[in-house]
Write the structure tokens for this entry.
Amino acid sequence: MKKNKSSKNWIINQHRDEYFKQSRSLGYRSRAAFKLLELNKKFNFLKKNSKVLDLGAAPGGWSQVASNYCTKGKVMSVDLKQMTELKNVKFLMMDFRVNESKKAIEKFFGDKISVILSDMAANTTGNKDLDCIRTNELCMEALKFSLSVLDNSGVIISKLFNGQDFEAVKKFALSNFKKVRFFKPKSSKDHSKETYIHCCGLKTL
Ligand SMILES: C[S@@+](CC[C@H](N)C(=O)[O-])C[C@H]1O[C@@H](n2cnc3c(N)ncnc32)[C@H](O)[C@@H]1O
């Protein structure tokens, strides 16, 4: 298949990228794995017994990291796209937003979840504002879901774009969690508006 100029440039840049090279040499499926490693170094949430839900998991870099840490816990990964199986990871190929997938998640864990990760990103359309709105909607959806399934001492970490609706997401998080922090890993590209929101300590009524 013929590749256009921008996709050729993307491939060239990708191969020059240090995190991409490292991900290949360490056997990670994506350079995104380093973002989770940095997030965990900062906030220290992945434990041996953690029950982890990984939303927007394909191709599986975050799930690899989570399953390496949570050897006595449970990991479930959800994505719209197919993901090659990983040992000790239950994969659900579904749109996270539909009720059916939420029910399947609750059934799999059968109990409260300790860590919810979301690296979900909407497909890019070429319209950066629209992409930002759509990805921030996914973040909001993950936060809303977390209110009913997260353990009181649990943690949710989600990708969020610094743009439209950022403040609405922040306000929602602050009204439902005792501690809300933001962190942009070094492995997140400088030009990207991406950051990560870390929320813990559910405010219960
Ligand atoms: C940046 S990639 C995730 C990379 C992944 N964290 C890793 O380490 O390999 C974003 C993913 O979000 C998924 N996604 C977007 N919307 C989704 C939805 N509604 N439900 C489930 N997955 C979704 C996309 O299919 C895509 O695979």
